Amino acid sequence: MSLLDRVRALLGDEAVEVAATPDGVPRVAPASPDAVALLLGTAREEGWRVRIEGAGTWLPADAPADLALTTRRLDKIPAIEPQDLSATAEAGIGCDLLRQQLADRGTWLALDPPGLAGRTLGSIIATATAGPLRQGFGPVRDHLLGVTFVTGDGRLVHSGGRVVKNVAGYDLTRLEAGAFGAFGVIVLIHLRLRALPRADQTLALEGSREDLTQVAEDIAAAGIQPAAHELMSPALARRERWLLAVRFAGSAALVAAEEAGLRAATGGRFAPLRADEGHSLWMRAAESFATRPVAFRVGGLPDSSDELLDLLQHQVGDEWISASPAIGAIRWGGEATIDRLKRLRRTLAGLEVPLTLERAPWPVRSAVGHFGAYREGVGPLVAGLRRTFDPGEAFVVAAEGAE
Question: What is the pTM of this model?
């Protein structure tokens, strides 16, 4: 019996997509978490190698495998609880549809990662790709109450809970956020929501990078806490010079007060953008990273942002780059060779700064790894976790990279 015949016998004809992936790998779309567990349990028995896909709009679907497991049919929203500011959604739900469903109930998931428009919720959780809103609302893991995932040998694991007051097992939830599928296929997510902002205002200031870095420091020193506070390169912002964009979101009174505080702290230098202009600015910046062949993120300390920007400019260039100076987060996009990425990671490791490879073709991912060790002992720890959650090595994931 062929692999596809075995899958059809397990899950039914509708689980196998007629058109194979561009590289000829058969694509399987289970319709329930139990079906995912059944498929992966069989993969362990048969020795099948499996790559995990969402909508296929972020990571290239090019990892060598016997079959591609897509979460596209896991697209239901079992619950939205506005009174608890929580929701439960399957991993394959499109983020656009989820955002609309939440907005209709007066709620908001404060995540704005690159490529948001075409991505699934599971993709964002698995890669932990937060955007500028991380400044005000925290990284991806802070938006999670719990996850359900399936291990490489078909075990269904429930971590965390549905509401804020029930978060037992939260460590496994954090483990899955940003694991790139190395420890399991996320199938269900319990989300922490926020009330839909009544007001949303973006203000912008152009200038040299050095001048804007000082302005960013002045804003932080004044105790102003915007929803987003992003320094963008000219190409990314589509401006002549670097751009510092500040976003406030919340009640009308709160946004007005914060905007007044910003003007006082910076001498009124910022210009407010119309709602459509602000929306376009953030969306264009996010989509730009989704079109670059390579994208990575760097996490340093707030007072190291300028130094890290200098380092990136010297080693890989700074045409497509975005930084959150107040929290030390930087995202880079462009073209880079394997040797250059490895050299950059080694340099950053000397500073105890992690580099997470977010997006790249498989030859680059497999050589560099999504999150190579930047501290002694991290490599063995990751290898041990993979043996625990994927003992048969079913998942084709470039977590650590080649030596």
Answer: 0.93
- 242-250/50-53 β-pairing: unpaired
Q: Which of 79, 199, 167, 181 is nearest to 122 (CA)?
A: 181
Collapsing DSSP to helix, strand or coil, 202 comes out as strand
pLDDT digits (tens, 9 = 90+) for 51-100: 999 988 899 999 999 999 999 999 999 999 999 999 999 999 999 999 99
Cβ atoms 401, 70 nearer than 8 A: no
Q: Strands 320-324 and 228-232: what pairing?
A: antiparallel
- DSSP structure class, residue 44: H
Q: Are 213 and 303 in contact (CB under 8 A)?
A: no
Q: Please answer whether residues 24 and 68 qualify as being in contact, where contact means their C-beta atoms are separated by less than 8 angstroms.
A: no
Please give the share of the chain, as a percent, with pLDDT higher than 90.
Answer: 79
358 SS3 class: strand
Which residue in 6, 66, 65 sits closest to 398, CA to CA?
65
DSSP letter assigned to residue 179: S
List domains and CATH numbers for the chain.
3-70 (3.30.43.10), 79-195 (3.30.465.10), 199-287 (3.30.70.3450), 294-361 (3.30.2130.30)
Q: Are 258 and 222 in contact (CB under 8 A)?
A: no
Q: What is the dihedral of CA 377, 40, 181, 97, to 10 degrees?
A: -160
- 29 beta partners: none
Strand 67-70 and strand 50-53: the pairing is parallel
Q: Which residues pair with 352 in a beta bridge?
A: none
Q: Which residue has the tokens 């205002």?
A: 201
Tens of pLDDT, residues 321-372 = 999 999 999 999 999 999 999 999 999 999 989 999 999 999 999 999 998 7
Q: Residue 104 and residue 110: Cα distance in Å, rounded?
A: 15
